[in-house]
Amino acid sequence: MDSIVFACPSCKSLNKLPKKEEYKKAICGNCKSNLLENQPIEISSEEEFNKLANSVTVPIIIDFWAEWCAPCKMFAPTFKSVAKEFPLKAQFVKIDTELLPSIAARFGIRSIPTTVAIKNNQEIDRALGALDEFSFAMWVDKLVN
């Protein structure tokens, strides 16, 4: 049976689950959090990001942002809301470009907010600017289906 690897949004532990079209229940093997309550993960180090990028098997949706960026702050609730619509279909992560400029440079981030989708540690698409909720959800849906 096929499986997926997904990081727990609460404790960041990697979880291997059977691949299904729909999940009724999915619990983190480490902290017992509900994996179906998909939340963005705040990345705090390059090592943490590399671990996720090299292990997670669903598309990873990265919000590159900064504290001083007004459009980034406007987009944050949209990013969080749309994450909830794609439990175990996409991993949502936030990267502060001020805290982790090396990752922003690796992806050639020139303006923020920029949202990048990767799979198997390779970029598959990107969206520039603060998208509205409908447009962002449609963009993510295209990547996971």
Describe it.
α2 crosses α4 (133-144). β1 (3-7) and β2 form a beta hairpin. The protein has helices at residues 46-55, 70-84, 101-106, 133-144; strands at residues 3-7, 14-18, 41-42, 60-65, 91-96, 114-119, 122-128. It starts with a strand and ends with a helix. Helices cover 30% and strands 26% of the residues. The longest helix is centred in the middle third of the chain and has 15 residues, at 70-84. The protein contains four helices and seven strands, in the order βββαβαβαββα. It has 145 residues and is α/β, with parallel strands linked by helices. The strands form two sheets. The protein has a five-stranded mixed beta sheet with strand order 3-5-4-6-7. A two-stranded antiparallel ribbon has the order 1-2.
Largest β-sheet summary: 5 strands, mixed
Task: Report the portion of residues in β strands.
Answer: 25-35%
Rg of Cα set: 14 Å
User: Alpha-carbon distance between the termini?
Assistant: 19 Å
If strands are numbered along the chain, what order do they take across the biggest sheet? 3-5-4-6-7
Task: Categorize the overall geometry.
Answer: globular
- DSSP summary: helix tally: 4
Structural class: alpha/beta
Unreliable runs: none
H/E order of the elements? EEEHEHEHEEH
Average pLDDT figure: 96
